[in-house]
């Protein structure tokens, strides 16, 4: 059981460690950027996509060994993260210096909305159904 294990049992030398560190760094960077009221850049949007793809990809093979409620939470969070990234790309396509054209951003965002709703349905039907 994960909750019963001490923090010293974590394996820090793992493929996901650099991805998790990068995700934490981008979070800290975003907090400063947001507080300074500076809009995101194309480099940041690309980095976020790469970092989260790497982070989830580095964990994907280990998820089947977890208890079912952790598996459901992981898979739903993949969908929610994809939606958040697609929404960022869509918002940036509508700005004065579009990162991607709207002809790409609109269908990406529409697909991400479907993924988001399916993720919510999956997550809440499991957790509320227990």
H and E string = HHHH
> Which strand-content bin applies to the residues?
under 5%
What characteristic shape results from the CA principal axes? globular
Q: What average pLDDT do the residues reach?
A: 92
Distance between the termini: 19 Å
In helices, the fraction of residues equals over 70%
Main beta-sheet annotation: none
Low-confidence regions: none
Strand segment count? 0
Distinct helical segment count: 4
Using only C-alpha atoms, the radius of gyration works out to 17 Å
Structural class by SSE content? mainly alpha
Set out the fold topology.
Layout: H1 16-35, H2 42-59, H3 68-93, H4 102-128
Helix pairs in contact: 1-2, 2-3, 3-4
Describe the structure.
The chain is globular, with a radius of gyration of 17 Å. Helices cover 70% and strands 0% of the residues. It is mainly alpha-helical. Helix 1 (16-35) packs antiparallel against helix 2, helix 2 (42-59) packs antiparallel against helix 3 and helix 3 runs antiparallel to helix 4 (102-128).
Characteristic key phrases:
130 residues; mainly alpha; 4 helices; 70% helix; 0% strand
Compact description:
This protein has 130 residues and is mainly α. It has helices at residues 16-35, 42-59, 68-93, 102-128.
